[in-house]
Amino acid sequence: MHKIAEVEIQHDIMVANKKLAKRNQKILDKSNVFAVDVLGAIGSGKTSLIETLIKKMNLKIGVIAGDVISKFDANRFEQYKVPVVGLNTGKECHLDAHLVEHALEDLPLEKIDLLFIENVGNLICPVDFDLGSHIRMVVVSVSEGDDTVEKHPLIFKDSDLVVINKVDIAEAVDADEEKMASDARMLNPDAIVIKSSLKTEKGVDEIINVIENFMNG
User: Fold this and answer.
1) Burial of 27 by CB count in 10 Å (0-12 exposed, 13-18 middle, 19+ buried)?
2) pTM of the complete model
3) Which domain holds residue 92?
4) Residue 78: CATH number of its domain
5) Does the pLDDT value for residue 30 go beyond 50?
6) Mean pLDDT computed over every residue of the chain
7) Number of domains composing the chain
């Protein structure tokens, strides 16, 4: 009986989250804000990638920084004089639509073209929680191991853009970047897969072009 109750509660939570996510996207659309849910494990480089995109993209950018303790990443983004809201998740290992809804209330959406929502650092918990973003970008580093993609299929199946990051150190960490890209394409043939290095700026312009193409419909 307890197992049945747990399943029913989980189902209700997911249905409620989906409704809130749709409402979030309506709010974003009304303000002409395009939102990207940025996912990735700790150390994948997603914070650094957002910083790079803030510096290189000629758009008004805002950021929601989600983490167990969000002030560290939020402080990094604030240095670029962009609107930032930090979301502390406490013991939770993912953002949800309800948290994002409150963050949207604290952002000057009329002054933002592109909103990056940095999710909590892991490849498992955020999978089922739609936030109302327009696309999902998953960042995975070669330093996590070249079997990381095939070990976490669900998040890659639900992604629009996959960034295989830190390819400049692939040889040093004995990782096969081509395998990671191939695994991502096999799991999700519709996803765009880009190999990148923020150190050398490999792939950065391509990431920007893909995001802008999504924004332009």
Assistant:
1) middle
2) 0.92
3) 2-215
4) 3.40.50.300
5) yes
6) 93
7) 1
